[in-house]
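Project standup — Tuesday

K.O.: blocked on the structure for the chain from last sprint. Re-posting the sequence here as requested.
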Amino acid sequence: TENSVSGDMRMTLSGIYAERIRDFASENKEEKLSEYFNLAEGVTAKFKGSNIADKGVTVELEFSIEVPLEQYEDSYIFPAVLVEPINDNPFDKKDRRYPVVYPDSWQDHYVCLLRLDPEKYHIEVPNSRNLILPEKDAELMFTSSYNLGSLVVRSSVKMNQSRFDQQKYPSLRTFYDEVAAAQTSFIEIQMK
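H.V.: unblocked you, prediction finished:
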């Protein structure tokens, strides 16, 4: 439609997230996977394909998407990460007396490609954010770019460590602050 943009979205998940997707897919048709995820308001996703049947370490999913443009003053905006963003830091306490333990290491990789008419729009993208914790305990890579009508947003969050003790807790909090800031950023579109 006139006040929306469309494109493709790919997700690669591993660890507990991949297992949850496999469990959902075993009980439902793969086409229903677009209903499994929390999408940004108004975003529609249509399932295109996956590698779930391969039973590999990671699950790869592909969707076609349509994103509504929300008007904000004389611009349009929409979230940079359209599905399952980490909106808030789950570790809001400054100190912690016991460790943070994940069931497993995990990875969440998201790529979204939207097509926008370069003759019609001027695009502002959020700044890149990259952070690797000491000993590569966790990694964040967030980039967005616009070139020749293609808007690409990539977000990769890897939790390589499954246990964070009291000494590592402050860096884990900082990490989640950066993830939330990246994944709640916005794309701004202005008409030329």
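K.O.: great, moving the ticket to review. The CA atoms of residues 3 and 69 lie 5 Å apart. The first strand starts at residue 4 and ends at 14.
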